[in-house]
Amino acid sequence: xxxxxxxxxxxPLNEEAMEKxxxxxxxxxxxxxxxxxxxxxxxxxxxxxxxxxxxIPQKAIILMAGDHGVVEEGVSAFPQEVTPQMIINFIHGGAxxxxxxxxxxxxxxxxxxxxAVDMDDLPGLIKKKVAYGTKNMAKGPAMTxxxxxxxILVGAEVVADAYGRGIRVVGxxxxxxxxxxxxxxxxxxxxxxxxxxxxxxxxxxNDKQLDVxxxxxxxxxxxxxxxxxxxxxxxxxxxxLEIAGLAGVCLGAAAQGIPVVIDGFISGAAxxxxxxxxPQARPYMIGSHLSVEPGHKFMLEYVxxxxxxxxxFRLGEGTGAALAMTMIDGAVKIYNEMATFSSAGVSExxx
Length: 351
What we know:
- Its EC number is 2.4.2.21.
- The active site is at residue 317.
- Belongs to the CobT family.
- Pathway: Nucleoside biosynthesis; alpha-ribazole biosynthesis; alpha-ribazole from 5,6-dimethylbenzimidazole: step 1/2.
- Strands 3-2-1-4-5-6 form a six-stranded parallel sheet, sandwiched between helices.
- It is α/β, with parallel strands linked by helices and 351 residues long.
- Helix content is 48%, strand content 10%.
- The protein folds into two domains: 3-53 and 335-344, Nicotinate-nucleotide-dimethylbenzimidazole phosphoribosyltransferase (CobT), small domain (5,6-Dimethylbenzimidazole Phosphoribosyltransferase, Chain: A, domain 1, Orthogonal Bundle), CATH 1.10.1610.10; 58-334, Nicotinate-nucleotide-dimethylbenzimidazole phosphoribosyltransferase (CobT), large domain (Rossmann fold), CATH 3.40.50.10210.
């Protein structure tokens, strides 16, 4: 599969199905629009699938893992060794994303797309390593353009495999120490925003480390001169392998004709890249929550999606996406199980 062939598979939403879904939603025994976001989701699902599903669709959180050379600048509160340690935790089912994925009835799929060490002896981990982490973007490009595209295609391939197993909703998740730094850099460049508005404290860095992080991002942009009119150039120069993989998850979901639930800050950066590569993929995206990372709201605005939940989350890993999947289940049930005015004999004069 090439990137071009992947993008050619992405089609516009089914407007006729959305109109039909809206008519049904308006006939349910409630004031029109009174279930807000649940109605919006049901209508969006109709456009994506061609109809609102009769049953709760099978779900999976696709968690991409990769390391970042920029950690040598001192941008993170945690050492890089935590990335593989957490992957072991995911595989053993003990992370926050595992708990919330189970709560949502979703499978957690963990993918090594760019971890800095080999993890060949870990059963259950999908091994699709493109490189052993990115290079230090404060000293040069994080990766080559070919590596960025290869990682995008990894994400799309994982979605295609999940689709083949019956998965019909995917969510994005990630693991990679230092990954809020490239994510902030991406929205800074793509959104043409002041650096102070988009750089946050990630895993909890102090004021001195925050200054170091801002300095590293400034250096990376100055040295690499990423072209905001070329999202892949931005991704390759100041991005991350797991961000690229998640951009591929977004594009792959659209290509398969299924929705993708966008998690937090790093997933938001991936959605920005995917939406810039192919604007037609944006209507397949569903916003989950608003991260406390300051740049996240700008990412969602860039893509044109709204968060459902305000939970003060900053963990990532797909935790917000997993919770939002329960809202999708609610939308499907409301659409299919709620009585209509005509069937219930209720007056349509509800206000």
